[in-house]
Amino acid sequence: DAGVIQSPRHEVTEMGQEVTLRCKPISGHDYLFWYRQTMMRGLELLIYFNNNVPIDDSGMPEDRFSAKMPNASFSTLKIQPSEPRDSAVYFCASRPSGAGRGHEQYFGPGTRLTVT
Amino acid sequence: AQSVTQPDIHITVSEGASLELRCNYSYGATPYLFWYVQSPGQGLQLLLKYFSGDTLVQGIKGFEAEFKRSQSSFNLRKPSVHWSDAAEYFCALNTDKLIFGTGTRLQVFP
To answer: Which residues, other chains included, contact A63 with Cβ-Cβ below 8 Å and sequence gap of 6+?
Structure first.
């Protein structure tokens, strides 16, 4: 199993540009999570999906952020327009629905975003 | 309120010394608790988890953790630290979603 796949691994963009981060969850996992990690705020949950449906997006910082999951094997997190304060590492994670809350999430390697 | 507290931001130990990383949680029901490790530039890897049964759980890389309901704690331990254990460690509580502590950065001196 390849694990959770994220692309790109690094992204450098200029303020005002659109940024799209991509995630492929582990096959068979019903839940997908997007996190942001910064020095100031630590790990923050942005949004999560169950069976491709967004369940909780209360962590999405503002309307500039949007996430989609068009099918079970692909999700995107889009920032438009990007701002320097969006610079962070963005992680995607997935987990199966079996065992409920007792089952761990599997994390991807992250995308390091730098907005200049 | 649901929360996780890791009181120690940064810990330094000598290689071969024992280690204990503290974690306290606040949750009204049965907690599902996890410890993750993050090496520099990497994602998070699960060390161990607890959700029922024996309150002393064993994990990978020689780590263990003890769940103490009376103290609302889930401290991570290792009897002898290796230089490769230098990383950031996160305690997490699973409700419908993972609530992470702020992390403890472990530095290991030779």
So the answer is: none
Q: Are A73 and A25 in contact (CB under 8 A)?
A: yes
Distance CA A94, CA B18 (A): 33
CB-CB neighbors (< 8 A) of A43 in chain B: 90, 100, 103
**Do residues B34 and B98 lie in contact, with contact meaning Cβ atoms separated by under 8 Å?**
yes
Choose, out of A104, A107, A111, A112, the residue to mutate when testing the contact with B (most B CBs < 10 Å). A104
Q: List, in sequence order, every residue forming a beta bridge with A21; answer none if it has no partner.
A: A77
Own/partner pairs for A101-104, CB < 8 Å, 24+ apart?
A101/B32, A101/B51, A101/B94, A101/B95, A101/B96, A102/B32, A102/B49, A102/B51, A102/B52, A102/B94, A104/B34, A104/B46, A104/B49
Compute the distance between CA of residue A112 and CA of residue A16 in angstroms, rounded to an integer. Answer: 17
DSSP state, B30?
Answer: -
Residue A33 forms contact with B (CB below 8 Å):
yes
Q: Name the residue with higher pLDDT: B10 or B1.
A: B10
What digits encode the pLDDT tens for the residues A39-97? 888 899 999 999 999 999 999 988 999 999 999 999 999 999 999 999 999 999 999 88
